Structures are given as C-alpha cells and as structure tokens.
Amino acid sequence: MSCSTTKNLTENKLIGTYHWTGIYGVGASIELKKDGVFKYNWVTGLINGTTIGTWTVEGKKIKLNSDLQPDTDLNKDFEIIRIEKRDTSLLTLKVLDSNDNPVYFANCFLEHNNKVIKSSSTDLNGFTKLNKIDSDSLTIQFVGYKTVKIKYDKTVSHYEIKMKEINDYYEYFTDKVLIFKHDRLYDRTIKTDKYVRKNYYERQKNVL
Fold first, then answer.
1. Which terminus has fewer CB within 10 Å in the chain: N or C?
2. What letter does residue 156 receive in the DSSP assignment?
3. Are residues 62 and 123 in the same domain?
4. Residue 73 lies inside a defined structural domain of this protein
5. In a domain, 208, yes or no
6. What angle do CA 6, 60, 54 make, to 5 degrees?
7. What is d(CA 186, CA 198) in angstroms, rounded to the nearest whole number?
8. Where are any strands of DSSP class E within the chain?
9. Is the pLDDT of residue 7 over 70?
10. Is the Cβ–Cβ distance between 28 and 201 less than 8 Å?
C-alpha cells in the first residue's frame, strides 16, 4: 500500500472533533481538519484559550505541533534590531511586534531610580522621540507584550526594538503524541484519579 493511500485512509478516519471533560469547569476539545490543521480549545473556569497548528499521522499515533513554539531564549524578552549613535539631543524609538508590524500607543519612559523622568507614546508607525536627559533606564510597555527594560546609554540616538507577546495562557505543542483507538484520542499526559476518570478525547457524534 502506498504512503499516499495510507494517509488518505487515515485522514478520512480521523477527521472530526474530539472532547475531553474534567471537573469543575475544566475541559478541552481537539478538531482535526482535512488540510492537516488542528484547532485545540481549552477552558479552566473563567480562563480559556485556543491553539492552532498542524497534525501528522504515524501509524496509530497523531503528532501535534502548534504554530507558535516556546522561546528557546527564556531570558530575552525583546530584541534590539538596530542602534544608531549620532550627536543629537533627541532619542528616537521605533517599536515593532514579532511580525515586524508597528506597535502603536506603546508607552515609553526614561527613568532614574525607577522614577519616570520623561515619557511619550508611539504613533501609528510605531515611532516616538524623547529628549535626552539624565536617566538610568529606558522602559517600553504595551498591554499583551513583555516589558522592555534597557540600561540607558546617552550615546545612543535611535533604537529599533522588537517586542515579544506574552503567551502565559498559550498551550504549546511540540511533537505531542495522541493515540487513536476506538474513536478516541488517548492522551498519556492526562493523569487519571478518582476525580479525573478519562484520559482520552471522545469523538463528537454528528447531530442531525
């Protein structure tokens, strides 16, 4: 049997939405789509989230890989793209997100001993400027992004900075394995006890 035929047969058998229910408002669902894309939704009380990625099949194993992957450099909350040093009384800033789009209305501060000395906000192009003054740090903040904190250098006239999003509630998948059996997706990472009875996602039946 060819690889392509095996893949087609397996896809037809697996495509659908599977649900898992825990206790006290805890649950999740996995939707396996025809195009090799999965959608994972989870809820824990009032907190919920969605992960989208790709799925592949190896025998009875389904592997999930999310579009977003954990940052391997856990100590780096931002990236300095470019620095310029010119003799000027102004410090200019350009602030971007991880996709190189401008972050507008980001709050930028020059601080001394954790006290704000000068502040401004970026415009629709992610650009702003500050007068150079005596300070010890440059801070950039925006909701949903990690705070940028840089030791202030008076010789720098321009920073181009890439901010990183906060994904505290994002569920990452890196070669996560599920086992398909009897119309269920078994997840060995789910530990069963007297409260959690199921370690599998059960296929949602079509309702006419």
1. C
2. -
3. no
4. no
5. no
6. 80
7. 9
8. 16-21, 26-32, 37-44, 47-58, 61-66, 78-84, 90-96, 107-112, 115-121, 127-131, 137-141, 148-151, 158-163, 176-181, 184-186, 200-203
9. no
10. yes
Q: Which of 75, 77, 52, 51 shows the shortest CA–CA distance to 149? A: 77
Count, residues in the chain: 208
Question: Is position 58 within any domain?
Answer: yes
The structural domain count of the chain equals: 2
And the tokens for 81? Answer: 């793209």
Q: Distance between CA atoms of 105 and 95, rounded to whole angstroms?
A: 10
Tokens 């990452």 belong to 172
Residue 5 backbone phi and psi in degrees, to 5: -65, -45
- Provide the residue type at 20 as one letter: W
Which residue has better confidence, 59 or 136?
A: 136
Confidence of residue 166 (pLDDT cuts 50, 70, 90): confident
Q: Where are the alpha helices (DSSP H) in the chain?
A: 3-14
Cα angle: 30, vertex 204, 33; to 5 degrees:
45
Tokens of 54: 């790709």
Q: What is the mean pLDDT of residues 14-30?
A: 90
CB neighbour burial string for 110-132, b if at least 16 within 10 angstroms, e if fewer: bbeeeeebbebebeeebebbbeb
Q: What's at 92, amino acid-wise?
A: T
